[in-house]
Protein: phosphoglucomutase (alpha-D-glucose-1,6-bisphosphate-dependent)
Amino acid sequence: MIIDTAIATIATTPFDGQKPGTSGLRKKVKVFAQPHYAENFIQSVFDCVERDEGATLVIGGDGRYLNRQVIQTAIRMAAANGYGRVLVGQGGILSTPAASHVIRQYGASGGLVLSASHNPGGPDEDFGIKYNIANGGPAPESVTEAIYIRTTAIDSYLTVATPDVDLDTIGETDVAGMAVQVIDPVADYAALMERLFDFAAIRAAVAGGLTMTFDAMHAVTGPYAHEILERRLGFAPGTVKNGVPLEDFGGHHPDPNMVHAADLFATMFGDDAPDFGAASDGDGDRNLIVGRGIFVTPSDSLAMLAANAHLAPAYAGGLKGIARSMPTSAAADRVAAALNIPAFETPTGWKFFGNLLDAGMCTICGEESAGTGSDHVREKDGLWAVLLWLNILAVRGQSVAQIAAEHWARFGRNYYARHDYEALPTEAANALMADLTASLEALPGRAFGPLVVEAADSFAYTDPVDGSLSANQGLRVLFEGGSRIVFRLSGTGTEGATLRVYLERYEPESGDLAAQTSDMLADLIAAADAIAGITRHTGRSQPSVIT
Ligand code: G16
Structure:
């Protein structure tokens, strides 16, 4: 067959709203499937990002509906845009942390990660494209802003007329002079995990009776979890549930929280629960940690992992610092203080950790949104968190509940919850935030029930490495005694607006460390409505999801 490999320039016109959010461009599949929509965005990426002629590009996704189609489009466009090599995961699969690792390991100039993370998939659901830079991390705001500006003026894109690449067979093919290498999506990542953690200790604990259950939610971590947990660590076959990635995640939201991973919670709080339970999300970067009869909040998990990280070989030499996003509880700060290392508070979005990690200023990072990770890659990493927990459980020989109780007895406990109000009319959500912003100045000194406001502000962050300023990153109301409420609009939704209300109360070592979170936060929940007029603005008296 003779293939015309001439580069074609296709005329196009801009689409409104191709502005990347907290983590890439996320839209409904029907939006992405419009002619030229994905092409416009991909060309805008190629036009803006740093790369040499003949550079390597990594492409992979979480296997959701449209994944294979957009990968074929991206491969053709990469060939037409002067890339020399594309590395793509077999079956179009690469978890987000695995993509980050592959970019770093093979010296790629960057990667396209096709995912809408924990958002549902299928013809009527969500799709997304994110660009990661050469350090393996999400493109910083300066790059995503340049890409967005380019999308508003784009008038053509480049492609080649070549047949689809066989994504299911490992090996190399040529696409218009560019090499396309289909790689095993699991192998490099699994080898990295073996280097970081004491697999022998975990295997010994498993042989000694340590049990777990892992819910892959029919998302990307299934193949990784089968290989690492069952084959390499020896957990019994069947430990990994829902391990086959499906285009629609079996009709569920691949969001590891109490609502969408309800089966896991039922198992872990039921009779005969295993020692440890975990889940990951659509693209494998989030994690949910549940011990037998105990849920560990992501904020607490970050703090407990940081406090015990020295038990894993990779972190035996100590941590350089700990970073958390602003809405994440301050539990990790207390660990940093005890370890005498710096603590950083960044805006929401993993991209804000990249500079700190590259500069060697911190080792472990985490977010309340179920993300934890370290300097081994530049993304949060769901299985990494699971393996660090397993490493700690194996070395300490204690239950999750014992480890948590000892942690709180030493550091005190940050009771914490996030209330999400999803799919709100955008105008109502914007009005709530505007009114609240206007009232911030008058809040200090006012009492809401037993709570007295000490300070209130709109969070802004100056990156200590490059000096860039990110303003309007959430509204904070801080109370006397260390409790606080944070209000933010989500940057990852695809339907209306989502209001996130983050509630935190600190209870010192001598306080009540074993209370119900909802009881401990009751005054804050009432104050949140009084301060922001949630019910008045939105008509909602209850959040859609509590995490
Ligand atoms: C993304 C970002 C995270 C962020 C989360 C929630 O996670 O990578 O840094 O915390 O969204 O963001 P928001 O509160 O704006 O919805 P993921 O797992 O969706 O890629």
Q: What stands out?
A: DSSP finds 18 helices and 27 strands in the chain. The domain at 413-546 is CATH 3.30.310.50 (TATA-Binding Protein).
